[in-house]
Design a protein that fits this description.
Blueprint: H1 16-27, H2 30-42, H3 46-74, H4 78-88, H5 96-128, H6 136-148, H7 150-169, H8 172-201, H9 204-212, H10 221-234, H11 241-246, H12 255-283, H13 292-304, H14 309-343, H15 347-368, H16 389-416, H17 419-425, H18 431-457
């Protein structure tokens, strides 16, 4: 059986708790803070939550277990790990494409994620100074000015990317572990503090009603597909990071238990984010349906007019920055690990080379909001007639690479890895549970993701 190449401390998590914290940090990103709570609120509240939890259990968790499994069995970066696991089961080395799809998707996501996360850094300062006005128009104007300034956008994109690369460059224990040990507890504490503030200063009842009032009349085929997509995208599968983090997991740690904890914590934090955001939104008579604008226009308007808004507004955007940072270091890790595997690069050199490339690609997203906002690279195709460089990169990752990657992970683990290897690596409580997982990853998960992908594309 393929074994990890090294059991030294540089390539092993120091403890199960640290691994789970890091994986939760990787899964919890900016989307958890603004998208999930709103989707819950407009899609049936508690009814949607029940369907979402079912989708997490039967789609997301089985694939997460499979991705962690490939990483631990292969013990290397995703492309190398997938090839080794395939060859160990007597399969073609070309299954390494599964690992490559994750690395490429993650790398492209990192290029624009750094740009969006950079906004949170800018807004820490804006919040601390009261946003310079209290009306929706004044706050919205600041957001437009930020997006229309290529210099400011470049500055914060650069700062965020440098911070992330500095962490990853210090290695697993010296960089990633030390960071998540501090940021994840801090993020959770800040989240609770912000919920307390929202409870005192906001309309908690309206927030609870929006999130949890159960309305099954809103549940239809589209809602179910939304739940499947949200479950799949939320926990960070199919972008290489869980495979890379799995390569550092010691044999004695249960991947099945870890996967359940990671998915559960990711969902919990997303729901808590709703309890932080919506009481403030409703107390100020603002629109909860703003999407990203909820974070950078709606909430800042509320903070600007509330007692203690400068302090808690800055704390809120610091929380977002922490969530973004724990995600992006995990997204960057697979390509840096591959540079170690393939070319024997030091981590610092890998970060300098691939970080520079990622930063440069990220400039396409920066310019898509200002100087190149009217540039349409694929305007010859009707589907992409209005798409900027930023839109195209997001489309490629969200609608093509990630869904295809998830499908191929499910098919590879479910059909190509020998059953005895699966049984030796996974600690299911009974054969019945193991058989259920195998059925889910062979049939249910790939079919469900395929349906979401087709629905999105058409």
């Amino acid at each position: 059986m393929a074994l990890p190449a090294s059991s030294d401390s540089a390539h092993t998590w120091s403890s199960e708790v640290v691994f789970i914290l890091a994986a939760i940090g990787a899964a919890v990103g900016l989307g958890n803070i603004w998208k999930f709570p709103y989707v819950v609120g407009v899609s049936g509240g508690g009814a949607f939550v029940l369907i979402y939890l079912l989708c997490v259990a039967v789609i997301a968790v089985p694939i997460l277990i499979g991705e962690l499994l490939i990483g631990r069995m292969g013990g290397h970066s995703p492309p190398v790990a997938t090839r080794m696991v395939a060859e160990d089961s007597g399969r073609s080395k070309h299954w390494s494409v599964v690992g490559w799809m994750g690395v490429i998707a993650g790398f492209l996501i990192a290029t624009y994620y750094s740009v969006i996360a950079g906004w949170t850094l800018a807004y820490i300062i804006k919040a601390a100074t009261g946003f310079g006005g209290t009306t929706m128009a004044e706050v919205a104007q600041q957001f437009e000015e930020l997006k229309q300034s290529p210099g400011t956008m470049t500055l914060w994109h650069t700062v965020f990317m440098i911070i992330a690369l500095a962490i990853v460059g210090r290695g697993l224990r010296g960089g990633i572990e030390r960071t998540v040990k501090v940021l994840m507890p801090a993020l959770f504490v800040m989240l609770l503090v912000m919920i307390g503030y929202a409870t005192v200063k906001g309309d908690l009842k309206a927030g609870l009603d929006f999130l949890f009032s159960t309305d099954f009349s809103k549940i239809n085929a589209d809602t179910v597909l939304d739940a499947i997509g949200q479950a799949f995208f939320s926990i960070g599968v199919a972008i290489g990071l869980m495979m890379a983090y799995g390569s550092y997991v010691p044999r004695e740690i249960s991947l099945t238990k870890a996967a359940v904890i990671i998915a559960g914590a990711d969902t919990l934090i997303a729901i808590l984010a709703g309890l932080m955001i919506f009481p403030i939104v409703f107390a100020n008579g603002l629109d909860p349906a703003e999407g990203p604008g909820l974070i950078f226009t709606t909430l800042p308007t509320a903070f600007a007019g509330m007692p203690g808004g400068e302090i808690f507004g800055a704390l809120f955007f610091l929380l977002l920055a922490f969530a973004g940072l724990t995600s992006i270091i995990a997204i960057i890790e697979p390509i840096i690990r591959y540079s170690e595997d393939k070319w024997g690069m030091s981590r610092v050199k890998g970060c300098l080379i691939f970080g520079s490339i990622g930063w440069a690609i990220g400039m396409l997203s920066v310019l898509s909001f200002n100087l190149w906002e009217n540039v349409r690279p694929l305007a010859v195709f009707e589907t992409f007639g209005a798409s900027t460089f930023f839109d195209l990169i997001v489309y490629a990752t969200d609608n093509l690479l990630m869904p295809l990657g998830g499908i191929f992970i499910a098919l590879f683990v479910g059909w190509r890895i020998k059953r005895e290897h699966l049984d030796s690596q996974l600690n299911f409580p009974s054969p019945a549970v193991a058989n259920t997982w195998l059925f889910l990853i062979r049939f249910v998960a790939p079919l469900a993701i395929l349906l979401v992908m087709i629905n999105t594309l058409i």
